[in-house]
Fold each of these.
Amino acid sequence: MANFHLHYRLFPVAAFLLLLSFPLSFSHSQSDNEADQDSPVSRFQRYLRIKTAHPDPDYASAVAFLKSQALEIGLNARILEFVPGKPLLLVTWYGSNPSSPSILLNSHMDSVPAESSKWLHPPFSAVRTSDGRIFARGSQDDKCIAIQYLEAIRNLRSQNFVPARTIHISYVPDEEIGGFDGAAKFVQSKEFKELNVGFMMDEGQASPGDEFRVFYADRSPWGLIIKAKGTPGHGSRMYDNSAMENLMKSIEIMSRFRESQFEIVKAGEAANSEVISVNPVFVNAGIPSPTGFVMNMQPSEAEAGFDIRIPPTADPDAIRRRIVEEWAPARRNMTFQIIEKGPIRDYLGGPLMTMTNDSNPWWSVFKTAISEAGGKLSRPEILATTTDARFMRQMKIPVLGFSPMTNTPILLHDHNEFLRDSVFLRGIKVYESLISALSSFQEDVSSQ
Ligand SMILES: *[C@@H]1O[C@H](CO)[C@@H](O)[C@H](O)[C@H]1NC(C)=O
Ligand SMILES: *[C@@H]1O[C@H](CO)[C@@H](O)[C@H](O)[C@H]1NC(C)=O
Ligand SMILES: [Zn+2]
């Protein structure tokens, strides 16, 4: 799951801390005894110990490890490289009916940095404590699903299950820095087109309760910078249309809009991720002096930056009009710049969301497979941040975001990220149910 802002701030610190953590990262906990050496949990731990955190993710080792696992299970594996140094591993289990649209399971190999000094256990040690918690950066986001996909397929193959539809797993780079050299390039490639993907699953989020969470859309991120110009003047003079006054008017109007959205959340009528969020992230104005700012001058320019997140249910053109007419109007001598960080509509102009009702036949297959695995689902949600799923939804491929972690605190990007071994193992069973159901699903041609 990506959080652009945080990364840039943490990079230099984290790089330094990573260097410091090297000598520590080989210590293992006592509960990892010999008997564990070749088990689903030990394979998960081996993957967690590969340092794929930014700013210097070791993709080569991750690809080599995952490829060796896939080959050992008897799957096909090939490496694609759309940008040098940023490999993508594509694993395939051919179905008996290869002309049917395939199933794609996606997982990103990279993770955000970790500040070792703030962790109970070194973030790349994958220590398992006596109560079963496996501590590692990436344990929730999203190396768990990477291994669970493979382990579920390993089990299905040992039960002689034969899929009808072909199943692919994509291990992609760079999701945490926007996915532009990873999933975005992948979906545009001829290799992707040849996969003929009918349905895809991507990462979700942990659930503190005992219901699984499922995500049918991301919010699209925009960076908005508004700039005001105005007559400069002495600090003592009162006059109309200074740059600061023009900017402050906009900030007031935007604050009222922000409040109107937040009120809906506070009233319990929508989740945070279902409204348009508008948060100020910088204000830049004033004339610098050696001790701070010149205090008796009103500047001729002022600007402010906002992080805006747009749910698929909102109309981006209406927001654009609001910016032009109210937030940065030319009549107030204002200009603006929108930095779109990814797609906001699918290629036919529709909203970037996957239906979670009877209009999407995959939805009922998914739901049934979860309940057959003994799981309960909470109400489908929009993710507050972004994932690679947006690039596939842009191609109008139905994608559900799902990481089978119940009774687990949400620790992605946080210190002390961990996953309990029992939760990890139950997830494998859930994917066995999902993969067998999805790969056997036959669309009812007569109803189309
Ligand atoms: C916009 O700029 C023009 C030219 O400098 C000025 O005459 C006008 O008063 C300004 N208007 C506002 C609202 O700032
Ligand atoms: C499914 O949901 C969409 C969006 O809410 C709605 O437009 C559509 O009519 C629904 N279809 C069915 C079959 O319920
Ligand atoms: Zn993630």
Note: Confidence is low (pLDDT under 50) at residues 4-30.
Amino acid sequence: MTERRDGADHGADDASEDDTFELELVWSDVVLTVPAGRSALDVLAAAGVAIEAGCGHGSCGTCATEFVEGEVIHRDTCLSVADREHEFCPCISRGRGRIILPL
Ligand code: FES
């Protein structure tokens, strides 16, 4: 098990964390599907949502994006516990079910 700075067990060995999930762009009335093996950042970019990115693996925080609702599986190493209440890194983090974005 890898110890993260928030002390939580993120269960990185849980294969279910790579399941498909959805991103709802609430102001655009669009729902995007993020399949296993593809990042949310990639899906957003393909839909025309430009999010600046840096490292691509959750360490720089450049891509940090606000969400308003949903269960995010945080896999970054840069956001604080407080940041994770309302932001996630779509380059690496995933979700369960549907994540609502104010876009
Ligand atoms: S691009 Fe660096 S955390 Fe996402």
Note: The chain has one domain: 18-101.
Amino acid sequence: MSDTTHDELTHENFDFRGFDLPDLKAVTLNAANASGKGPKGSGPDGANGDTIGGAGKAGKSKGGNSKKSEKGGKAVAKEKNEKNGVDKKSRPGLFTPMELRGITVRNRIWLPPMCTYSVFARDGRPTPFHYQHYVSRAFGGFGMIIAEATAVAPEGRISPCDTGLWEDGQIDAWRWIVDGIREAGAVPAIQLNHAGRKASTGCFALGYEGQSVPEEAGGWPTVAPSPIAFGGLATPRALSVDEVHGIVGAFAAAAGRAVTAGFQAIQIHAAHGYLISQFLDPLCNERDDEYGGGLTGRSRFLIEVVDAVRGVVPEDMPVLVRVSATDWAAGGWDLDQTIALAKVLKNHGVDLVDVSTGGIVAGVSIPVKPEYQVPFSEQVRLKAEVPVTAVGLITKPKEAAKVLSRGKADAVEIGRAGLRDPFWPLRAANKLGVPVTEAPYAPQYVRGAF
Ligand SMILES: Cc1cc2nc3c(=O)[nH]c(=O)nc-3n(C[C@H](O)[C@H](O)[C@H](O)COP(=O)(O)O)c2cc1C
């Protein structure tokens, strides 16, 4: 495979819409904080002893105490006691299957959600492009294929060309993709999203890239917790409490449609500055009602979405949440709050936390380098005792294997390297000396094995 140097890959390539508007003091990750040795209660809510998701809520969660999720947590806790690196033999490899509730994922190399902005008809329905894109990567050996940020409401699309699951008419367009992924041996998952103040932006097919699309060109007014714009995008309108409840319902309805389409796992997008992370982050959420204020209030929307989604999906279906572990901005969302949140998510039946960073506030500087987000997944895994995935410039098979063998994550996600090489997992198997018989080849491709 072509191992790309990190010089070619910058944070600007990401889909974070992190437009370069230096309106905030840039911060780099403090090494002490990343290693979990930061000052206790240094977060705005840690200091005042605020907690998220009361016991009553946790009790209400349908799947919160499932045996499987307890099992995951205990395994993490056991490793914590054994110290990193001591019990290497019990740690999984890239090709070790992984159980999540009722499903088994064939390996720990997953395709993260990546928008393709390719619904040119603007009706939210995936097309033959999406079929070949996802199914080819399932044949390429990925264990879980997490389909791109898919809107739970038309006004929640990042661009007019996003996929959607906001109406029943979109279900059939997903079915053949889901079936194709499953037939190729991978687990089909879907990321559900509402883009909030980062909605109605342009894309390659439409133009207006990095800008708000004007209404006359098919754009729409945006909404957010508070009327604060992201960078140079249009200023959003603050959502009413009734509207917040409506969006919680939209997430649940979209999750129900995903189940009908055959998806085997749901990922809730609470990262990268889209609506849910706008609520989480004190720099975007200035509400003085029950959805703002301390960590409890700012997390309420996400926890309600999790409960609502858990309430409609089967008991044995995994629910994942993607978070940004920091917004890389002074006074904003940080690792301490992420760990506190992850503990609550676990109690509400979330089976795995997908740990990313950034995208929430514009104009911050991010120390992008290979595996730069791995310290965050490691800390969330150890401190919240919840299974996690690591993502972000993991491009080399040996390095990816080390992330797992050192207990820094339970699975890795290969994004842009998986865009340029749909067969990344099969190529990795070859590089790591995994026999063809144990690599995730579909029978049709064995004779052309690496
Ligand atoms: C083209 C593109 C589209 C993306 N779209 C999404 C998305 O829909 N949802 C999401 O959570 N992250 C999205 N991301 C972020 C990726 O999932 C991933 O976290 C990021 O690319 C870092 O991983 P990598 O270095 O392996 O590419 C996108 C990234 C790229 C490059």
Note: The first strand starts at residue 98 and ends at 100.
